């Protein structure tokens, strides 16, 4: 318990492999191409390399047990012996773990959801009346041993009991899992003694939930749990890590307990409350001053100034990243295509470790010791400030002019009348969310273009052939508002980022999204502008093939921000407006080209919601403002749709109405009634398409089933406002499933039109 304080560390690191080695190995294992030994060999190699690099860079405490075959919450469920009973029959341990994560022919997987406000998804543990807890420390002990044998100053990391329970899901009638906190704390006590026995000097216990408003009594719970764990005699020194925001009242609660170190996120939280917590004077403060989840180079001067304000408040200050660098790519090294200026503004995982080490040296030896690093950081800051790509006066003045004039459209009734005259749709119009299956041919064409095996004319020809097929299919099915199917889009954000000024794509900037799935988010570094139309050629080609209206398909500004790495030198609201202006220009070009219906997708509207309630309204205001900026340029006769991928609106329901779209399609995984009742409760009066079938499953729903959903919906919403559509885009489905499901969907709409009393065709 009297371990030496450490001075430089990171809270965790990427684990998928610098070249996505773990992704390839796990997928090969799942496909039966390699055995478990080979998978384990890849995993051990990645751990060894990661630790060696962190130690060689100069960290004096290295996180271990941050490796995962799938997810750290699932690892924690295993650690606590809390996997659901339905996987218990899988004899092999690793297969049982993967069954919990992914399911198999007989076993439904656990749910997956977003990890705080990041784009990482965790596996949601289930706590039911039959759940028991029993310590299973094999993984953490094995990683500790492996690291120690390698000579690494290893610090095991586990997710803490408060975060684990508050992020778990109650099942089978169990009350909210947090009621089991006392019982679970006992298991953590056993864990701490096992770690002490194994020679761990420090343990990091992650409690990011303390920066949220998920539970009002979280600070009291923190005091209770850590007083108890801190009071144990046989334990390593305890470092409780909070991250993703300001711990607020939880900071003094933690400081009142006997834990030795407390981590605070000084990038997304503030230094304000630190001086007000006198108990910190006996603690190590682990200051997260290097941004662990965005890719910008740290301004070392600014970070040193921040550190200076907290130095007097703690017994010792260690420098760290704000959170695990799991959320950023491994290293800048493969990014050889960037110009020097751009490259100098960035720091990926490996570069962030160097920043931490430089800052810690500056604290220990004085800033002269890292004069060179500070000089380079200052040069990068100056270059970024003065780069003309970050200041497009035309874009800025256009936004100011438009927002000053207001982003209102005509009244809902005026629009409804104008659109009815133009579109002549039947009651209960049928449509889809945008994408059709991404077929093998589409993927082949994209790969061939990238490999320069075909030229862009040939690529365009093949995409047009896909569009023609999709239009013919929709005509044959009898849908009312058609789509072009999005064959040309690899990803709904990347597609736009590639065409807009102010973005760049990385060569190897992969980050784990969930399990073996990785994404390569674009980097939004400068002022955003649209040099040319992005979608009109595809949309007008599709429209030329049919007399039915074809819906133009765009991604909204909030979603583009949410799935990119975004510049941190101006408020997000300003950046959102720049993206919105580009989308607005696109809606106007689509309108000019004769497209009468335009959908602007905002599936990420809820994801970016701030973790603290006090910050949410300001976010919703700018998010709604950006959406309206992007959609309010068109005439009243042009119909604006939006699509959101969820049905549990919670705090964002008012914002959905404020988007002021003409038609909103949503998931309706719960019942239609509930979704529509929620909307009715806030006086939502627009068109609404609660998904009549779940596209996440290959099952083909029957006509009767979907007709029953429509009847149910008509109890809550008048026929004049109801649309008929699936839950989400169809790109992950097979063409035959889609054809059968949409045929039944159209039949259900027709049947309901014919039989429902309120409808006269
Ligand atoms: N238009 C997109 C599609 O159909 C929407 C995807 C989404 O909501 N995530 O694929
Ligand atoms: Zn969706």
TrEMBL record:
User: What EC identifiers does the entry list?
Assistant: 2.1.1.14
Q: Does the keyword Methyltransferase apply?
A: yes
Q: Which UniProt keywords apply?
A: Methyltransferase, Transferase
Task: Determine the domain of life of the protein's source.
Answer: Bacteria
Query: Is the Transferase keyword given for this protein?
Result: yes
Protein name from the UniProt record: 5-methyltetrahydropteroyltriglutamate--homocysteine S-methyltransferase
Source organism = Mycolicibacter terrae
Taxonomically, what lineage is the organism?
Bacteria, Bacillati, Actinomycetota, Actinomycetes, Mycobacteriales
């Amino acid at each position: 318990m009297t371990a030496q304080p450490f001075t430089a560390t990171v809270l965790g690191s990427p684990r998928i492999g610098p070249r996505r080695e773990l992704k390839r190995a796990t997928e090969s294992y799942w496909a039966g191409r390699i055995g478990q030994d080979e998978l384990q060999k890849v995993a051990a190699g990645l751990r060894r390399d990661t630790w060696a690099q962190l130690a060689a860079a100069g960290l004096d405490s290295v996180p271990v047990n941050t490796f995962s075959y799938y997810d750290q919450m699932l690892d924690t469920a295993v650690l606590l012996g809390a996997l659901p009973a339905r996987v218990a029959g899988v004899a092999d341990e690793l297969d049982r773990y993967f069954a919990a994560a992914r399911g198999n022919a007989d076993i439904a997987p656990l749910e997956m959801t977003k990890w705080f406000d990041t784009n990482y998804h965790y596996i949601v543990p289930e706590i039911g009346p039959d759940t028991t807890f029993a310590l299973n420390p094999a993984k953490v002990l094995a990683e500790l041993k492996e690291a120690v044998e390698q000579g690494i100053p290893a610090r095991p990391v586990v997710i803490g009991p408060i975060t684990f329970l508050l992020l778990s899901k109650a099942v089978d009638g169990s009350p909210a899992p947090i009621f089991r906190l006392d019982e679970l704390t006992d298991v953590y006590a056993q864990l701490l003694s096992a770690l002490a026995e194994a020679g761990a000097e420090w343990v990091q216990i992650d409690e990011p939930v303390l920066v949220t408003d998920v539970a009002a009594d979280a600070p009291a719970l923190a005091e209770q749990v850590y007083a108890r764990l801190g009071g144990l005699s046989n334990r390593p020194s305890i470092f409780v890590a909070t991250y993703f925001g300001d711990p607020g009242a939880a900071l003094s609660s933690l400081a009142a307990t006997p834990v030795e170190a407390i981590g605070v996120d000084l990038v997304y939280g503030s230094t304000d409350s630190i001086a007000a917590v006198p108990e910190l004077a006996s603690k190590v403060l682990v200051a997260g001053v290097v941004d662990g989840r965005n890719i910008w180079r740290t301004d070392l001067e600014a970070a040193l100034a921040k550190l200076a304000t907290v130095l007097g408040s703690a017994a010792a200050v260690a420098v760290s990243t704000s959170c695990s660098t799991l959320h950023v790519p491994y290293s800048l090294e493969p990014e050889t295509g960037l110009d020097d200026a751009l490259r100098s503004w960035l720091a990926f995982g490996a570069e962030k470790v160097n920043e931490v080490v430089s800052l810690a040296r500056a604290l220990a030896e004085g800033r002269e010791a890292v004069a060179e690093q500070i000089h380079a950081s200052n040069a990068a800051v100056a270059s970024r400030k003065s780069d003309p790509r970050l200041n497009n006066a035309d874009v800025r003045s256009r936004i100011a002019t438009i927002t000053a004039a207001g982003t209102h459209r005509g009244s809902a009734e005026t629009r409804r009348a104008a659109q009815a005259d133009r579109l002549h749709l039947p009651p209960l119009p049928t449509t889809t969310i945008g994408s059709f299956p991404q077929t093998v041919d589409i993927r082949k064409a994209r790969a061939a273009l990238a490999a320069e095996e075909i030229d862009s004319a040939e690529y365009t020809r093949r995409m047009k052939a896909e569009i023609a097929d999709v239009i013919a299919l929709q005509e044959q099915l009898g849908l009312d508002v058609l789509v072009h199917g999005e064959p040309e889009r690899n990803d709904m954000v990347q597609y736009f980022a590639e065409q807009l000024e102010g973005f760049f794509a990385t060569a190897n900037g992969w980050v784990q999204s969930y399990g073996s799935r990785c994404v390569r988010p674009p980097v939004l570094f400068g002022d955003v502008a649209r040099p040319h139309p992005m979608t009109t050629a595809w949309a007008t080609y599709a429209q030329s093939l049919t007399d039915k209206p074809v819906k133009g398909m765009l991604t909204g500004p909030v979603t583009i921000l949410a799935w990119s790495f975004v510049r941190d030198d101006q408020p997000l609201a300003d950046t959102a407006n720049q993206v919105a202006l580009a989308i607005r220009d696109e809606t106007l070009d689509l309108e000019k080209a004769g497209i009468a219906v335009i959908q602007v997708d905002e599936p990420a509207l809820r994801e970016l919601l701030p973790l603290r309630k006090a910050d949410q309204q300001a976010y919703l205001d700018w998010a709604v403002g950006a959406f309206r900026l992007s959609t309010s340029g068109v005439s009243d006769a042009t119909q604006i749709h939006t699509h959101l991928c969820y049905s549990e609106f919670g705090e964002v329901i008012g914002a959905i109405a404020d988007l002021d779209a003409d038609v909103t399609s949503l998931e309706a995984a719960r019942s239609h009634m509930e979704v529509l009742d929620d909307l009715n409760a806030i006086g939502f009066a627009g068109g609404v398409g609660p998904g009549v079938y779940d596209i996440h499953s290959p099952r083909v729903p029957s006509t009767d089933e979907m007709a029953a959903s429509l009847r149910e919906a008509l109890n809550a919403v008048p026929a004049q406002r109801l649309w008929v559509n699936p839950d989400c885009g169809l790109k992950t489905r097979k063409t035959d499933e889609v054809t059968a499901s949409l045929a039944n969907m159209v039949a259900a709409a027709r049947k309901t039109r014919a039989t429902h009393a309120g409808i006269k065709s």
